[in-house]
Specification:
heterodimer; A: alpha/beta; 7-stranded mixed beta sheet; 6-stranded mixed beta sheet; 13 helices; 15 strands; globular; B: alpha+beta; 2 helices; 10% helix; binds iron/sulfur cluster
Amino acid sequence: MSRRVGMEVAIAAAEAVALCNIDVAAVYPITPNTHVAEHLAEIVAEGRIDSEFITVESEHSALSAVLGAAGTGARTFTATSSQGLLYMQEVMPIASAMRLPVVMVIANRALSGPLNIWNDHSDIMLQRDMGWVSLFAENGQEVVDMLIQAFKIAEHREVMLPVNVNMDGFQLTHMVEPIELPDQAEVDRFLLEYKPYATLHPDRPITMGAFAMPEIFTEVMKAKDVAIVNAKKTILEVWKEWESLFGRKYEPVAAYKTEGAEVVLLTMGSMGETAEVAIDELRREGISAGLLKLKLWRPFPFKELKKAVKGVKVLAVTDRAVSYGGPGGPVCAEIRSALYDEPERPVIVDYIIGLGGRDVSVEDFITMGKRALEAKIKKPREAYKFYGVRGE
Amino acid sequence: MTEKRWPERWQEVNPGCMVFTPGSSQEYHTGSWRAGRKPVWDKSKCIKCGVCYIFCPEGCIFADEEGYFAGDLTYCKGCGICAHECFPEAVTMVNEEG
Ligand code: SF4
Ligand code: SF4
């Protein structure tokens, strides 16, 4: 039976990974992911799980180490944040090209500089095109659930891709929340044994990560793209199974009070909960507002998004990263492009908000909802707006 | 019948582009990338010191039965290091035909 605990989310993330019977973990601690690294190291040191914890000297080595271990058929895990993720970036496309199912939790944090340790999504947005499956958790429960799901998705024979689970730094990592922690038997039943497609072994020499001539490279990239697009099918299956076992529902685009809504806000990660309160308030004021929460970032859920915005007049996307000198925020750019061919599409406004830990309150969402609604009559002049920036 | 060198369709690529045949790198004759110049050895000047052998970054220089060094140009990139390092000037870079 699951046990209900009050637990810091970063600690719960480590506990969830410990339930997954991992063979090898290599994590270099970096704020705000440090507690994941420390607690997992403790679990291994205490002998609670039979796993190797490799203490590495950098994030580049952390991902390299787990990649090597994954090549031998080990179930592997790593974790990082911000600059640490950038340092891993060099290895990230290799993991996906080699189709090795590494699982990573990312405590999302702003990129330097100026140095800032607080939360936004600029670290993961930069990794958008690394070929990893990318999930966004809204609260501690989702971090735990998604981490366990991640192994099943990553290792599925139809997927065989690395997966990252994103949890907002501090807003989630350092919060103590009530969490249902599944027990070992439940996780064992769900996860099954990892059967790798191929393994490195001296008795049966094979090559992973070989050199590829121009004559073959395009075909390999096409295969990788198809693999991640098709991964959605498995993700949906895994989420269905999770729901039937644990009663908690997961969807690529989760809707909150969107029926008949004129204005719909869209969030990713922990802001969803604050936004829900704002939607309730807006509804109380007679404004038909709703909320969409994007939980699957890669592969991007085009079909589900199009369905979710049917009939919506204004869609207000919140972005926690900037594409400088580009179309604004990466999430909105994606959504605009996804809806471009739709015969009827909402007016889309993009709010860049909550950068580097700037607080985003219920009031802010109420204001955004109301301002966005004005866009129905008067289309906004700018493609995006830095919400709450001083000097405007 | 010649063996197929590349998969014809992307669907035929092994997952992760894994290679299940050991030693297949021998089929990549990177010497074909050589643009223009190749080294030639002059036995009469060679003192069998092995310096060219040591410095060749492609590992394509070997000693023959008599101990003279010469290149197997299958992997030679034409970088000219052997010619540069051979102090008795037994190696010269010459223009290639075609
Ligand atoms: S460096 Fe020159 S002299 Fe020495 S072995 Fe090579 S060819 Fe002969
Ligand atoms: S030209 Fe370069 S690659 Fe070719 S044999 Fe000489 S050192 Fe080796």
